[in-house]
PABS domain-containing protein
Amino acid sequence: MMYFLTFREAREILKAKREGKEEVEVNLDLMRSNKKEKLYLQGDFVLFPDNSKVEVRIVEKISEDEGTVYFVKNGQVYKAAIAGEHFYKLVPTIPPTIEINGIRMHRTKDTNPLEDTMNKVNTVNPRRGEKVLDTCMGLGYTAIESARRGAEVITIEKDPNVIELARINPWSRELFTNKNIKIIQGDAFFVIKEFEDESFHVIIHDPPRFSLAGELYSEEFYEELYRVLKPGGRLFHYVGNPGKKYREKDLQRGVMERLRKVGFTNVKRVEKALGVFATKPTYPYPR
């Protein structure tokens, strides 16, 4: 069993201890449900439902760390983080996002990862029986939401560390249990070449920022997106607009120009989702 703690739950536990209480009920699944579990306060230890004992001093440290998710497994406390070539961690937004070298994978300012996901998915509105390509899985929220609407989803993730954090994250569990979701580990730039022409009704392209994955914003990659999309199919491309405010650059405009160049039509900005919507014309369609 795995129990999750953030600074919020840790502060609830410490508050109950200061008040002299012997037990406290807190949520232990990162607010994936409204369920609360009963913890017992026994001297210098907190007793979890599986009888794991965690020292109060560790709970105190967690209470001071507002940027990290922790989990308790087999009586041990771990950070939901991976250190390697880059540093990855789950951030205790609701639902969580991933931070890689300090860069968050979801918008969290004036929104949250769930609302961010819904804005993206609603733009193309996958339907029952449709096939969806989700080019950059991350924590899988767009893949999960698309599958919940009845679509068959193929989602691609390049980084095994991201997949590992998705396995830890309770909000991502449907990635690994929903039979309508297939995960491919690999680089979308190359994986997409393996799909047959006109395979998908919908593409959700949510790449890392341009500075980290410029090839996923290239005309060459857009030609592949066009090729695998069915006539009449819908594309949402998350872009953001880094640099526009401060350096007078408009990344979205460049994206839109390249999408039109490879054949997409009805190309337009979607301000609410900070991205671009486009469609592949039905036959006959010019190139």
Summary: The mean pLDDT is 94. Residues 7-18 form the longest helix (12 residues).
